[in-house]
Every structure is written in C-alpha cells, then in structure tokens.
Amino acid sequence: MEQNNQVYIELQKHLDNQAVGFPATRSGVEIKILKHIFTPGEAGIACCLSYKFEPLDTIFYRAGHLVASPEELEKSLDRIQKKGGIESKIKHGKMHYCNAPLVVGMYEFQLNRLTPEFIFQ
Q1: What is the model's pLDDT at position 111?
Q2: Residue 94 needs a FRET pair 20 to 30 A away by CA distance; which of 19, 50, 55, 71 works?
Q3: pLDDT in tens, 27-46
Q4: CATH number for the segment(s) 3-119
C-alpha cells in the first residue's frame, strides 16, 4: 500500500484493538472511510486516543510529539469531533475525548440479515 496510507493503516489497527474493533478488509474500504474522516495528522492523533473518555492532559502526554501545545491538540480534537471521528463530553468540568466506534447499534442488529441491497444502499 502507498506510504501516505501508513498512518491510516496504523489507525485502523489501533481502532481494531479497541472495545468494538475495526477490522481490515480485502478491498481496503476501511482506509477510504478513515481518509474521509481524518487528515493524516488527525489520524496520528486518533492513534493516541483510547475507547475510554480521557482529559486533554492525559491525551497530550501520549500525543505531545504530534502537536506544539495542548491548545493545538484541543483544536485538533475538536475538529475531529465535529467530523464525527471521535467523541467528546464534559466530565468534572473538563472536556474528555475518546475514539468513536464505527458502528454501534442498529447496524450490528442486521448482521444475520445482511443482503447486497442493504450493504450497498
């Protein structure tokens, strides 16, 4: 795969190790989805997030090498959240962030009922 896909491959693997998972496919469609949501820099930041909500300072400890300051990290996290790539919530008066699972809920309930018509809608 192309070199510029490497960060997306790393993010896919990182997300696949989270609670819900994000498996690789033969077609590589998962990389296309990640490219749609994340810039390469944002994908790197998302690799530093957990599936559990964490405060900015905890994330900065892991992602500080990717950004110049906690403020820059916060701006990036807010941008990713607005695009639906991660989740955020206020906890104890501070913003907390975590990776968002690709699908939770209705889609999983269709697993035993998937048809080509449903998948390609």
Answers
A1: 67
A2: 19
A3: 998 898 888 889 999 999 99
A4: 1.10.10.10
- d(C-alpha 57, C-alpha 16), whole Å: 24
C-alpha gyration radius of the chain: 15
Query: How many C-beta neighbours within 10 Å does residue 39 have?
Result: 15
For 75-100, b/e burial (b = at least 16 CB within 10 A) is: ebbeebbeeebbbbeeeeeeebbbbb
pLDDT digits (tens, 9 = 90+) for 77-99: 999 998 888 989 999 999 999 99
Q: Which of 69, 116, 119, 77 is nearest to 100 (CA)?
A: 77
Q: What residue segments make up the domains of the chain, in order of their start? A: 3-119
Type of residue numbered 53: F
In 3-state terms the chain splits into helix, strand, coil percentages (rounded to 5) of 55, 10, 35
